[in-house]
Write a structure and sequence with these properties.
The chain is an alpha/beta fold. The protein has two domains: about 250 residues, Rossmann fold; about 40 residues. The protein is about 55% helix and about 10% strand. It has 15 helices and five strands. Strands 2-3-1-4-5 form a five-stranded parallel β-sheet, with helices on both faces. Helix 9 runs parallel beside helix 15. The protein is globular and about 55 Å long. The protein starts with a strand and ends in a 21-residue tail after the last helix.
Length: about 325
């Protein structure tokens, strides 16, 4: 399946914006997030569920049929892109009613299942400096209402839960690379640095077009400018302002007074503190310095130039 490409994220690397551009591109076949939630096509949902939830026996029973469906779809389009950051981060995402509670979370199992479903596919993902990732993902959880703890407590809890049940372990990019390189071959795995295209998303689209064979101008046109999640807070603030202005009048006669007051208090509540103690920040950077060195050595990426913690390269042993 040389014209099939699997984009595994990571979250918080402009994935939603990229997915929107791919979905709107006329020559691109698309499966994954954005369609998966709606079951349109249903193959998006079944593919993700197979990679992330089926036990070994059910996966084996479903794999050949799913692989045939993916191959048939790929034969009808110049490029088929399967994009879903749940492949890399399922345990920490809101997955909706179609999903069991506990996904498969190790990169190795997911990578090899995807290789069974789309053999020969290309794989690509983007990294984001881990300390910045933690802050960004924390702000998203605050917006969702899934946490109210200060960032300092949130980050300290992630450190305490290492090595396995922590979000920090999920962003070991070196482990993701090793798993997909083993499953698909190192030459089929492409890693980019989010910070390198953060201010020039069009350049990132050009790189995706070069990888997938899609028309770069067409992909830029389907993007249309803007950033889905970066632009969303401004729209959300305006919506909250309108809700706060209208809600007392609209619900005064419909909701009990204590419920109404609670809703208004929630809307007016300031966000939790976002200061991160230096000791916690240092501990996070220290945790990733070695793994980032491993990824840099395997891929040739200059992570240190983009602010990542990277351990010193081991000194060469002097020859006797």
């Amino acid at each position: 399946m040389s014209n099939v490409f699997i984009h595994i994220g990571f979250p918080k690397t402009a994935t939603t914006t990229l997915q929107g551009a791919l979905m709107r591109h006329g020559a691109c076949g698309y499966l994954g997030k954005g369609l998966r939630e709606k079951g349109l096509p249903e193959l998006s949902l079944r593919l993700a569920q197979a990679a992330l939830y089926l036990d070994r026996f059910r996966f084996e029973a479903a794999a050949d049929g799913l692989a045939a469906e993916i191959a048939a779809l790929a034969a009808t389009v110049p490029a088929l892109v399967i994009s879903d950051e749940t492949f890399a981060f399922a345990e920490y995402m809101e997955l909706g009613e179609h999903w069991p509670k506990q996904p498969v979370v190790d990169h190795w199992t997911v990578a090899h299942r995807l290789a069974r479903l789309a053999p020969g596919a290309g794989v690509f993902f983007s990294t984001r400096e881990q300390l910045d990732f933690v802050g960004s993902y924390y702000r998203q959880e605050v917006k969702r209402g899934t946490t109210e703890e200060p960032l300092a407590d949130y980050a300290a809890r992630q450190l305490d839960e290492l090595p396995r049940r922590s979000m920090l372990h999920a962003i070991r990019y070196d482990e993701a690379y090793d798993a997909y390189a083993d499953a698909f071959g190192p030459d089929r795995v492409h890693v980019s640095i989010y910070e390198a295209f953060r201010e020039d998303f069009g350049a990132w689209l050009d790189a995706v077009a070069a990888l997938t064979g899609l028309d770069a101008d067409g992909l830029r046109e389907s993007w249309g400018g803007g950033h889905a999640n970066r632009d969303r807070p401004r729209r959300q603030r305006e919506s909250v302002r309108q809700i706060r202005a209208l809600l007392p009048k609209q619900v005064k006669g419909l909701l009990p007074k204590d419920v109404r007051r609670g809703v208004l208090d929630r809307l007016a509540k300031p966000p939790p503190p976002t200061d991160l103690p230096e000791a916690t920040a240092t501990a996070i950077r220290d945790y990733f310095a070695g793994p980032n060195r491993a990824l840099a050595d395997r891929t040739g990426l200059d992570l240190a130039a983009h602010g990542y913690a990277v351990a010193e390269a081991p000194a060469e042993t002097a020859s006797a």
